[in-house]
Write a structure and sequence with these properties.
By secondary structure, this protein is an alpha+beta fold. It is 26% helix and 31% strand. It has 6 helices and 11 strands. The strands form 2 sheets. Strands 1, 5, 6, 7, 10 and 11 form a 6-stranded antiparallel beta sheet that branches. β8 (133-143) and β9 form a beta hairpin. It is globular and about 45 Å long. The two termini are 14 Å apart.
Length: 207
């Protein structure tokens, strides 16, 4: 078993992902979370009494009022990274996936990340490099009634902000894949609007 202590430094602003309306958050957590006992704790962490706009996404807060990431957000990033990086190399002449990196070597990678790779602590405090602001951008969608445009609004943490956490690999062989996913953070980050480059980061290993 291998435990890696990591520090992320965000090179681009990071956007919050939680609905400011706690009822929206409750419904979302209930639909996605297998453990219903965590719903009230996670909704309470939003601290969104003054924010009722359904289009607004925010950062949960810990008891000290500090914005946080949850452990499963990092695991979600790992799954996204592994899925994308595993596509590199295509398929061989027999139609089998050609593994050219560590991600491509992992079969049933979502089960591996769920059951053999863990992130802690559950609440990961974010250390801000400056004032938190808001990011507004238009969202366009094609519907049966034609194109619709709405305005999305998110809390935004500035570039240069950091967070620290630990990654535990139950199988030492998965450490190289984890490093590969962290490297991918330079290109694709965390949080809302990742496709625009938001939430990109660099990392250092602390131990």
């Amino acid at each position: 078993m291998k435990t890696i202590k990591v520090k992320l430094t965000f090179t681009e602003p990071l956007l919050g992902t939680w609905p400011a309306n706690p009822n929206v958050a409750r419904e979302y957590i209930a639909s996605k979370g297998p453990d219903a006992s965590t719903i009230e704790d996670e909704v309470a962490a939003l601290g969104a009494d003054a924010a009722a706009d359904r289009a607004m996404t925010v950062f949960p807060r810990n008891e000290a009022g500090q914005p946080i990431l949850y452990d499963y957000q990092l695991k979600g990033f790992f799954k996204d990274s592994c899925g994308m990086l595993g596509r590199i190399g295509g398929k061989d002449e027999k139609g089998k996936k050609r593994a050219v990196n560590e991600s491509g070597k992992l079969s049933a990678y979502k089960k591996i990340i769920d059951g053999l790779i863990f992130v802690g602590p559950r609440q990961i405090p974010l250390t801000l490099s400056g004032e938190m602001t808001e990011c507004q951008r238009p969202l366009r969608a094609q519907t049966a009634q034609g194109e619709r445009v709405s305005l999305a609004n998110s809390e935004e943490i500035p570039a240069g902000s950091t967070c620290e956490f630990e990654i535990t690999c139950m199988d030492d062989a998965h450490e190289k894949a984890v490093m590969e996913w962290l490297d991918y953070g330079k290109l694709r980050g965390l949080g809302q609007w990742r496709n625009s480059g938001k939430g990109r980061f660099t990392y250092e290993i602390l131990g």
